Protein backbone atom coordinates (compact mmCIF):
# COMPACT_ATOMS: atom_id res chain seq x y z
CA UNK A 1 0.00 0.00 0.00
CA UNK A 2 1.38 3.40 -0.93
CA UNK A 3 2.55 5.97 1.56
CA UNK A 4 0.22 8.68 0.29
CA UNK A 5 -2.83 7.30 2.00
CA UNK A 6 -1.01 7.27 5.33
CA UNK A 7 -0.04 10.92 4.89
CA UNK A 8 -3.71 11.68 4.27
CA UNK A 9 -4.61 9.75 7.41
CA UNK A 10 -2.09 11.73 9.48
CA UNK A 11 -3.42 15.04 8.15
CA UNK A 12 -6.97 13.98 9.03
CA UNK A 13 -5.93 12.93 12.55
CA UNK A 14 -4.02 16.11 13.43
CA UNK A 15 -6.73 18.35 11.95
CA UNK A 16 -9.28 16.57 14.11
CA UNK A 17 -7.08 16.99 17.20
CA UNK A 18 -7.21 20.76 16.67
CA UNK A 19 -10.98 20.68 16.17
CA UNK A 20 -11.56 18.48 19.24
CA UNK A 21 -9.48 20.78 21.44
CA UNK A 22 -11.63 23.72 20.36
CA UNK A 23 -14.96 21.94 20.70
CA UNK A 24 -14.40 19.97 23.89
CA UNK A 25 -11.71 21.91 25.74
CA UNK A 26 -14.10 24.00 27.83
CA UNK A 27 -14.73 21.33 30.53
CA UNK A 28 -11.01 21.39 31.34
CA UNK A 29 -11.13 25.09 32.21
CA UNK A 30 -14.43 24.81 34.07
CA UNK A 31 -13.07 25.95 37.48
CA UNK A 32 -11.67 29.14 35.91
CA UNK A 33 -14.88 29.62 33.93
CA UNK A 34 -16.93 29.41 37.13
CA UNK A 35 -14.66 31.91 38.84
CA UNK A 36 -14.57 34.35 35.92
CA UNK A 37 -18.35 34.63 35.66
CA UNK A 38 -19.47 33.65 39.16
CA UNK A 39 -21.34 30.57 37.94
CA UNK A 40 -22.48 27.40 39.65
CA UNK A 41 -21.16 24.06 38.44
CA UNK A 42 -24.46 23.28 36.70
CA UNK A 43 -24.50 26.62 34.84
CA UNK A 44 -20.84 26.40 33.90
CA UNK A 45 -21.49 22.90 32.56
CA UNK A 46 -24.29 24.31 30.43
CA UNK A 47 -21.88 26.90 29.03
CA UNK A 48 -19.44 24.09 28.23
CA UNK A 49 -22.16 22.43 26.13
CA UNK A 50 -22.68 25.44 23.87
CA UNK A 51 -20.11 24.41 21.22
CA UNK A 52 -22.22 21.30 20.74
CA UNK A 53 -25.23 23.56 20.10
CA UNK A 54 -23.25 25.26 17.33
CA UNK A 55 -22.44 21.83 15.90
CA UNK A 56 -26.09 20.88 15.94
CA UNK A 57 -27.14 24.02 14.11
CA UNK A 58 -24.74 23.68 11.19
CA UNK A 59 -23.47 20.14 10.72
CA UNK A 60 -25.94 18.89 8.15
CA UNK A 61 -25.31 22.00 6.08
CA UNK A 62 -21.59 21.31 6.31
CA UNK A 63 -22.30 17.76 5.10
CA UNK A 64 -23.83 19.17 1.92
CA UNK A 65 -20.73 21.38 1.51
CA UNK A 66 -18.48 18.32 1.87
CA UNK A 67 -20.35 16.35 -0.78
CA UNK A 68 -20.52 19.33 -3.15
CA UNK A 69 -17.15 21.08 -2.73
CA UNK A 70 -14.93 18.36 -1.31
CA UNK A 71 -13.02 17.60 1.84
CA UNK A 72 -10.04 19.92 1.30
CA UNK A 73 -12.10 23.11 0.97
CA UNK A 74 -14.35 22.16 3.88
CA UNK A 75 -11.55 21.21 6.28
CA UNK A 76 -9.46 24.30 5.52
CA UNK A 77 -12.46 26.63 5.87
CA UNK A 78 -13.53 25.00 9.13
CA UNK A 79 -10.08 25.20 10.72
CA UNK A 80 -9.62 28.84 9.73
CA UNK A 81 -13.07 29.84 11.02
CA UNK A 82 -12.58 27.93 14.26
CA UNK A 83 -9.29 29.72 14.97
CA UNK A 84 -10.90 33.09 14.23
CA UNK A 85 -13.82 32.40 16.58
CA UNK A 86 -11.55 31.27 19.41
CA UNK A 87 -9.60 34.50 19.11
CA UNK A 88 -12.86 36.42 19.62
CA UNK A 89 -13.21 35.01 23.15
CA UNK A 90 -10.86 37.70 24.40
CA UNK A 91 -13.25 40.41 23.20
CA UNK A 92 -16.47 38.80 24.49
CA UNK A 93 -18.25 40.62 27.31
CA UNK A 94 -20.01 38.70 30.04
CA UNK A 95 -21.57 35.26 30.03
CA UNK A 96 -23.81 36.01 27.06
CA UNK A 97 -20.90 37.18 24.91
CA UNK A 98 -18.74 34.18 25.83
CA UNK A 99 -21.66 31.84 25.20
CA UNK A 100 -22.29 33.34 21.76
CA UNK A 101 -18.63 32.90 20.82
CA UNK A 102 -18.66 29.28 22.01
CA UNK A 103 -21.72 28.61 19.84
CA UNK A 104 -19.81 30.05 16.87
CA UNK A 105 -16.81 27.85 17.69
CA UNK A 106 -19.05 24.79 17.49
CA UNK A 107 -20.69 26.01 14.29
CA UNK A 108 -17.28 26.46 12.67
CA UNK A 109 -15.47 23.38 13.95
CA UNK A 110 -17.90 20.57 13.20
CA UNK A 111 -17.16 19.47 9.64
CA UNK A 112 -13.52 18.47 10.18
CA UNK A 113 -14.66 15.15 11.63
CA UNK A 114 -17.03 14.28 8.77
CA UNK A 115 -14.76 15.63 6.01
CA UNK A 116 -11.67 13.90 7.34
CA UNK A 117 -13.63 10.69 7.84
CA UNK A 118 -14.90 10.66 4.27
CA UNK A 119 -11.45 11.45 2.92
CA UNK A 120 -9.93 8.52 4.80
CA UNK A 121 -12.73 6.21 3.66
CA UNK A 122 -12.07 7.00 0.00
CA UNK A 123 -8.38 6.16 0.38
CA UNK A 124 -8.80 2.80 2.18
CA UNK A 125 -10.67 -0.25 0.92
CA UNK A 126 -13.14 -2.12 3.06
CA UNK A 127 -10.70 -4.75 4.34
CA UNK A 128 -8.62 -2.07 6.07
CA UNK A 129 -11.25 0.57 6.65
CA UNK A 130 -11.90 -0.45 10.26
CA UNK A 131 -8.19 -0.06 11.07
CA UNK A 132 -7.92 3.25 9.20
CA UNK A 133 -11.05 4.71 10.74
CA UNK A 134 -10.01 3.41 14.16
CA UNK A 135 -6.73 5.30 13.83
CA UNK A 136 -8.64 8.29 12.48
CA UNK A 137 -10.99 8.27 15.47
CA UNK A 138 -8.00 8.17 17.83
CA UNK A 139 -7.93 11.92 17.17
CA UNK A 140 -10.74 12.53 19.65
CA UNK A 141 -9.04 11.01 22.72
CA UNK A 142 -5.72 12.49 21.57
CA UNK A 143 -7.29 15.94 21.32
CA UNK A 144 -9.08 15.55 24.63
CA UNK A 145 -5.94 14.18 26.27
CA UNK A 146 -3.83 17.08 25.05
CA UNK A 147 -6.47 19.55 26.19
CA UNK A 148 -6.77 17.89 29.60
CA UNK A 149 -3.01 17.87 30.12
CA UNK A 150 -2.20 21.41 29.02
CA UNK A 151 -5.27 23.63 29.24
CA UNK A 152 -5.81 23.41 33.05
CA UNK A 153 -2.19 24.48 33.59
CA UNK A 154 -2.52 27.43 31.22
CA UNK A 155 -5.95 28.39 32.55
CA UNK A 156 -4.78 28.30 36.17
CA UNK A 157 -1.99 30.76 35.37
CA UNK A 158 -3.42 32.97 32.62
CA UNK A 159 -7.17 32.28 32.55
CA UNK A 160 -9.52 30.27 30.39
CA UNK A 161 -9.39 32.71 27.43
CA UNK A 162 -5.65 32.16 26.92
CA UNK A 163 -6.09 28.41 27.35
CA UNK A 164 -8.66 28.37 24.54
CA UNK A 165 -6.15 29.93 22.12
CA UNK A 166 -4.07 26.74 22.16
CA UNK A 167 -6.33 24.74 19.79
CA UNK A 168 -6.65 27.92 17.68
CA UNK A 169 -2.89 27.89 17.12
CA UNK A 170 -2.89 24.25 16.01
CA UNK A 171 -5.82 24.93 13.67
CA UNK A 172 -3.91 27.76 11.98
CA UNK A 173 -0.87 25.49 11.52
CA UNK A 174 -2.99 22.80 9.87
CA UNK A 175 -4.73 25.01 7.28
CA UNK A 176 -1.83 25.12 4.74
CA UNK A 177 -1.13 21.40 5.22
CA UNK A 178 -4.74 20.57 4.46
CA UNK A 179 -4.70 22.76 1.34
CA UNK A 180 -1.55 21.05 0.04
CA UNK A 181 -2.17 17.41 0.92
CA UNK A 182 -5.87 16.70 1.54
CA UNK A 183 -6.75 15.70 -2.02
CA UNK A 184 -9.05 12.86 -3.11
CA UNK A 185 -7.40 9.65 -4.36
CA UNK A 186 -8.13 10.16 -8.05
CA UNK A 187 -6.32 13.51 -8.10
CA UNK A 188 -3.46 12.13 -6.02
CA UNK A 189 -2.92 9.17 -8.31
CA UNK A 190 -3.17 11.34 -11.40
CA UNK A 191 -0.54 13.66 -10.01
CA UNK A 192 2.04 10.93 -10.02
CA UNK A 193 1.02 8.58 -7.20
CA UNK A 194 2.51 5.11 -7.08
CA UNK A 195 1.00 2.23 -9.04
CA UNK A 196 -0.12 0.50 -5.89
CA UNK A 197 -1.94 3.70 -4.88
CA UNK A 198 -3.89 3.50 -8.14
CA UNK A 199 -4.66 -0.18 -7.65
CA UNK A 200 -5.80 0.34 -4.07
CA UNK A 201 -7.87 3.35 -5.11
CA UNK A 202 -9.63 1.22 -7.71
CA UNK A 203 -10.34 -1.41 -5.06
CA UNK A 204 -11.63 1.24 -2.68
CA UNK A 205 -13.97 2.62 -5.31
CA UNK A 206 -15.16 -0.88 -6.15
CA UNK A 207 -15.85 -1.57 -2.49
CA UNK A 208 -17.74 1.70 -2.20
CA UNK A 209 -19.82 0.89 -5.26
CA UNK A 210 -21.25 -2.09 -3.38
CA UNK A 211 -22.78 0.23 -0.79
CA UNK A 212 -26.24 1.70 -1.42
CA UNK A 213 -25.65 5.07 -3.08
CA UNK A 214 -28.26 5.60 -5.80
CA UNK A 215 -31.08 6.37 -3.38
CA UNK A 216 -31.21 8.05 -0.01
CA UNK A 217 -30.25 5.60 2.77
CA UNK A 218 -32.64 7.49 5.01
CA UNK A 219 -35.55 5.67 3.39
CA UNK A 220 -34.47 2.61 5.37
CA UNK A 221 -34.32 1.96 9.10
CA UNK A 222 -30.76 0.61 9.25
CA UNK A 223 -28.99 3.95 9.27
CA UNK A 224 -31.46 5.43 11.75
CA UNK A 225 -30.63 2.63 14.17
CA UNK A 226 -26.92 3.38 13.85
CA UNK A 227 -27.59 7.07 14.47
CA UNK A 228 -29.80 6.21 17.43
CA UNK A 229 -27.13 4.08 19.09
CA UNK A 230 -24.55 6.80 18.62
CA UNK A 231 -26.88 9.41 20.08
CA UNK A 232 -27.69 7.28 23.13
CA UNK A 233 -24.01 6.59 23.81
CA UNK A 234 -23.27 10.28 23.41
CA UNK A 235 -25.07 11.00 26.69
CA UNK A 236 -22.73 9.00 28.98
CA UNK A 237 -19.76 10.20 26.96
CA UNK A 238 -20.69 13.86 27.42
CA UNK A 239 -21.69 13.32 31.05
CA UNK A 240 -18.43 11.71 32.09
CA UNK A 241 -16.27 14.09 30.09
CA UNK A 242 -18.01 17.30 31.17
CA UNK A 243 -17.94 16.61 34.90
CA UNK A 244 -14.82 14.46 35.39
CA UNK A 245 -12.44 17.29 36.21
CA UNK A 246 -14.83 19.14 38.49
CA UNK A 247 -15.78 15.82 40.13
CA UNK A 248 -12.16 15.13 41.03
CA UNK A 249 -11.65 18.71 42.22
CA UNK A 250 -14.85 19.10 44.26
CA UNK A 251 -15.47 15.55 45.50
CA UNK A 252 -11.91 14.33 46.00
CA UNK A 253 -9.93 17.51 46.62
CA UNK A 254 -7.63 17.22 43.60
CA UNK A 255 -6.06 20.28 42.01
CA UNK A 256 -7.27 21.10 38.51
CA UNK A 257 -3.86 20.38 36.86
CA UNK A 258 -3.61 17.01 38.64
CA UNK A 259 -7.14 16.10 37.58
CA UNK A 260 -6.36 17.16 34.02
CA UNK A 261 -3.24 15.01 33.98
CA UNK A 262 -5.20 11.96 35.13
CA UNK A 263 -7.85 12.51 32.48
CA UNK A 264 -5.15 13.01 29.86
CA UNK A 265 -3.48 9.74 30.84
CA UNK A 266 -6.71 7.83 30.17
CA UNK A 267 -6.80 9.15 26.62
CA UNK A 268 -3.73 7.07 25.64
CA UNK A 269 -5.36 3.66 26.21
CA UNK A 270 -8.58 5.20 24.93
CA UNK A 271 -6.95 6.04 21.61
CA UNK A 272 -5.34 2.61 21.34
CA UNK A 273 -8.65 1.00 22.20
CA UNK A 274 -10.30 2.68 19.20
CA UNK A 275 -7.64 1.28 16.90
CA UNK A 276 -7.98 -2.20 18.44
CA UNK A 277 -11.76 -2.12 18.10
CA UNK A 278 -11.45 -1.04 14.47
CA UNK A 279 -9.24 -4.05 13.72
CA UNK A 280 -11.61 -6.31 15.68
CA UNK A 281 -14.59 -5.07 13.67
CA UNK A 282 -12.69 -5.88 10.45
CA UNK A 283 -12.12 -9.43 11.71
CA UNK A 284 -15.71 -9.90 12.88
CA UNK A 285 -17.23 -8.35 9.77
CA UNK A 286 -19.43 -6.21 12.02
CA UNK A 287 -19.07 -2.71 13.42
CA UNK A 288 -21.94 -2.94 15.92
CA UNK A 289 -21.21 -6.20 17.72
CA UNK A 290 -18.25 -4.65 19.60
CA UNK A 291 -20.44 -1.61 20.31
CA UNK A 292 -22.90 -3.83 22.22
CA UNK A 293 -20.10 -5.09 24.48
CA UNK A 294 -18.87 -1.53 25.09
CA UNK A 295 -22.37 -0.34 26.01
CA UNK A 296 -22.92 -3.16 28.50
CA UNK A 297 -19.52 -2.65 30.13
CA UNK A 298 -20.05 1.12 30.32
CA UNK A 299 -23.47 0.72 31.94
CA UNK A 300 -22.02 -1.64 34.53
CA UNK A 301 -19.08 0.63 35.34
CA UNK A 302 -21.34 3.69 35.65
CA UNK A 303 -23.65 1.90 38.10
CA UNK A 304 -20.65 0.85 40.19
CA UNK A 305 -19.34 4.42 40.15
CA UNK A 306 -22.71 5.68 41.38
CA UNK A 307 -22.68 3.23 44.27
CA UNK A 308 -19.02 3.69 45.14
CA UNK A 309 -19.47 7.05 46.90
CA UNK A 310 -21.54 5.36 49.62
CA UNK A 311 -20.08 1.85 49.59
CA UNK A 312 -16.40 2.11 48.61
CA UNK A 313 -15.17 5.71 48.21
CA UNK A 314 -11.62 4.54 47.47
CA UNK A 315 -12.88 2.88 44.29
CA UNK A 316 -14.49 6.05 42.91
CA UNK A 317 -11.46 7.46 41.11
CA UNK A 318 -10.43 4.17 39.40
CA UNK A 319 -14.04 3.62 38.36
CA UNK A 320 -14.27 7.15 36.98
CA UNK A 321 -11.18 6.55 34.84
CA UNK A 322 -12.62 3.24 33.60
CA UNK A 323 -15.86 5.03 32.69
CA UNK A 324 -13.86 7.64 30.78
CA UNK A 325 -12.11 4.90 28.82
CA UNK A 326 -15.32 3.06 27.95
CA UNK A 327 -17.30 6.21 27.15
CA UNK A 328 -14.91 7.20 24.36
CA UNK A 329 -14.62 3.75 22.75
CA UNK A 330 -17.65 3.58 20.47
CA UNK A 331 -17.17 6.58 18.18
CA UNK A 332 -14.97 5.04 15.51
CA UNK A 333 -17.23 2.02 15.14
CA UNK A 334 -20.53 3.88 14.93
CA UNK A 335 -19.03 6.54 12.67
CA UNK A 336 -17.75 3.90 10.22
CA UNK A 337 -21.04 1.99 10.39
CA UNK A 338 -22.99 5.12 9.46
CA UNK A 339 -20.74 5.88 6.47
CA UNK A 340 -20.73 2.31 5.18
CA UNK A 341 -24.49 1.96 5.56
CA UNK A 342 -25.02 5.20 3.62
CA UNK A 343 -22.54 4.46 0.80
CA UNK A 344 -19.81 6.77 -0.47
CA UNK A 345 -22.19 9.11 -2.34
CA UNK A 346 -24.08 9.87 0.85
CA UNK A 347 -21.15 9.38 3.25
CA UNK A 348 -20.49 13.08 3.82
CA UNK A 349 -24.11 13.79 4.69
CA UNK A 350 -24.44 10.62 6.76
CA UNK A 351 -21.35 11.40 8.83
CA UNK A 352 -22.53 14.99 9.24
CA UNK A 353 -25.93 13.70 10.38
CA UNK A 354 -24.16 11.35 12.79
CA UNK A 355 -22.20 14.26 14.22
CA UNK A 356 -25.37 16.36 14.37
CA UNK A 357 -27.13 13.80 16.52
CA UNK A 358 -24.08 13.45 18.72
CA UNK A 359 -24.06 17.23 19.00
CA UNK A 360 -27.71 17.06 20.07
CA UNK A 361 -26.68 14.66 22.83
CA UNK A 362 -23.77 16.90 23.80
CA UNK A 363 -26.02 19.97 23.85
CA UNK A 364 -28.85 18.49 25.86
CA UNK A 365 -26.73 16.41 28.23
CA UNK A 366 -25.31 19.32 30.27
CA UNK A 367 -28.83 20.75 30.60
CA UNK A 368 -30.24 17.40 31.71
CA UNK A 369 -27.35 16.62 34.02
CA UNK A 370 -27.42 20.13 35.44
CA UNK A 371 -30.94 19.40 36.65
CA UNK A 372 -29.79 16.02 38.00
CA UNK A 373 -26.96 17.69 39.92
CA UNK A 374 -29.29 20.35 41.30
CA UNK A 375 -31.85 17.82 42.51
CA UNK A 376 -29.80 14.76 43.43
CA UNK A 377 -26.08 15.63 43.39
CA UNK A 378 -23.23 14.85 41.04
CA UNK A 379 -23.15 11.11 41.79
CA UNK A 380 -26.63 10.73 40.31
CA UNK A 381 -25.27 11.92 36.96
CA UNK A 382 -23.57 8.57 36.50
CA UNK A 383 -26.73 6.62 37.30
CA UNK A 384 -28.60 8.57 34.61
CA UNK A 385 -25.75 7.99 32.14
CA UNK A 386 -25.91 4.23 32.87
CA UNK A 387 -29.56 4.19 31.79
CA UNK A 388 -28.63 5.60 28.37
CA UNK A 389 -25.83 3.03 27.94
CA UNK A 390 -28.29 0.26 28.74
CA UNK A 391 -30.74 1.62 26.17
CA UNK A 392 -27.98 1.70 23.53
CA UNK A 393 -27.09 -1.93 24.25
CA UNK A 394 -30.75 -2.88 23.82
CA UNK A 395 -30.99 -1.11 20.44
CA UNK A 396 -27.82 -2.80 19.16
CA UNK A 397 -29.03 -6.20 20.32
CA UNK A 398 -32.35 -5.75 18.55
CA UNK A 399 -30.57 -4.64 15.38
CA UNK A 400 -28.22 -7.65 15.40
CA UNK A 401 -31.14 -10.05 15.92
CA UNK A 402 -33.00 -8.39 13.04
CA UNK A 403 -30.07 -8.92 10.70
CA UNK A 404 -29.64 -12.63 11.46
CA UNK A 405 -30.69 -14.74 8.54
CA UNK A 406 -30.39 -11.83 6.09
CA UNK A 407 -27.50 -10.80 3.85
CA UNK A 408 -26.32 -7.33 4.91
CA UNK A 409 -25.60 -4.62 2.35
CA UNK A 410 -22.85 -3.09 4.43
CA UNK A 411 -20.70 -3.95 7.36
CA UNK A 412 -22.50 -2.81 10.44
TrEMBL record:
Q: Where is this region: Disordered?
A: 187-213
Q: Which residues form a coiled coil?
A: none
Which residue stretches does the UniProt record annotate as biased composition, category Low complexity? 203-213
Membrane-crossing residues?
A: 7-30, 42-66, 73-92, 161-182, 229-248, 254-272, 293-312, 382-400
- Which residues belong to any copy of the Major facilitator superfamily (MFS) profile domain? 5-404
Question: What membrane topology was assigned to this protein in its record?
Answer: Multi-pass membrane protein
User: What keywords is this UniProt entry annotated with?
Assistant: Membrane, Transmembrane, Transmembrane helix
The organism sits in which domain of life?
Bacteria
Compartments it resides in = Cell membrane
* Main location class: membrane
Listed name of the protein: MFS transporter
